[in-house]
Design a protein that fits this description.
Elements: E1 2-10, H1 13-24, E2 27-29, E3 32-35, E4 38-44, E5 61-67, H2 70-77, E6 84-85, E7 92-93, E8 102-107, E9 113-118, H3 126-134, E10 140-149, H4 153-162, E11 166-175, H5 176-181, E12 190-198, E13 206-214, E14 231-235, E15 242-245, E16 251-254
């Protein structure tokens, strides 16, 4: 069991694919993009009207692109038009109490939230150390996780564990850096519980639950077929696709 790919819904699939190719050097085959080992499928949206969910709303779902040098990645991103920032002040260096990573959140041209993620030097997972060693000149190495807003971390974790994912980290990110990273304008001290889950073989991407405590979480799920209704395709033994939803309405496609 592992995440095979992420499926983004799009009002203009060809234009969106062109953005990912230009911004991140993604390779395109059919309707599937590849960044490193990660696969991102672009499918047509049934309801193309965009909905931009804030980081504390249940419809929020991002995915994190791993980079070795966030300054270089950010500079390259700024050369590609069409994206919009979520973070308020550029890349943020989180304190060691929040994991010590550097990160920047933004939206692609259709509003899908993304994150540039540079791990702290002493906390790079083996999967990404190997990727850095194999391709030292690559800027965007792949997708580490898809981040899902959750009002109840325990309930959401139980759902994903029921699908076979394993909890590998649980912590609390807090402070003004987190507020700026998540785009909480006017909030001086955000607090977000982070629950990281991985496939049993520790493959990427994993799932990261984002349980916002301050500001308060808001229940507003993404509608079916909406541009924001990203789907997580989980590889399994069967062939028939089954749609299941976590407690916040985030979508996973499983096989029996």
């Amino acid at each position: 069991m592992r995440i095979e790919k992420l499926r983004l819904r799009s009002a203009a699939p060809k234009k969106l694919a062109a953005f990912y190719q230009s911004a991140f050097g993604a390779a395109l085959s059919g309707r599937t993009l590849r960044i490193g080992e990660a696969q991102i499928e672009i499918a047509a949206a049934v309801n193309p009207a965009p909905q931009n969910f804030a980081s504390n709303e249940s419809g929020f779902q991002h995915f994190a692109l791993v980079v070795a040098e966030i300054g270089r990645a950010y500079d390259l991103l700024r050369q590609t038009p069409g994206w919009r920032p979520i973070s308020l002040a550029g890349p943020e260096q989180l304190p060691q109490s929040s994991g010590g990573a550097a990160a920047f959140k933004f939206r692609d041209p259709e509003g899908h939230p993304l994150e540039l993620l540079q791990f702290a030097k002493d906390a790079v997972p083996p999967f990404w150390r190997d990727s850095f060693a194999a391709a030292p000149r690559r800027v965007f190495h792949g997708v580490d996780h898809t981040g899902l807003a959750a009002r109840d971390a325990d309930a959401a974790a139980g759902f994903w564990q029921g699908l076979g994912f394993v909890c590998v980290r649980r912590g609390l990110n807090r402070g003004p850096e987190q507020a700026r990273l998540d785009g909480f304008d006017g909030v001086s001290d955000a607090e977000v519980e982070i629950v990281s889950l991985a496939a049993p073989d520790d493959s990427r991407p994993g799932v990261e639950l984002l349980a916002c405590r301050r500001p308060a979480p808001v229940s507003r799920p993404a509608a079916d077929g909406d541009v924001a209704a990203t789907e997580i395709l989980i590889a399994g033994a069967g062939e028939k696709e089954i749609l299941v939803r976590d407690p916040e309405g985030h979508r996973a496609i499983t096989t029996p």
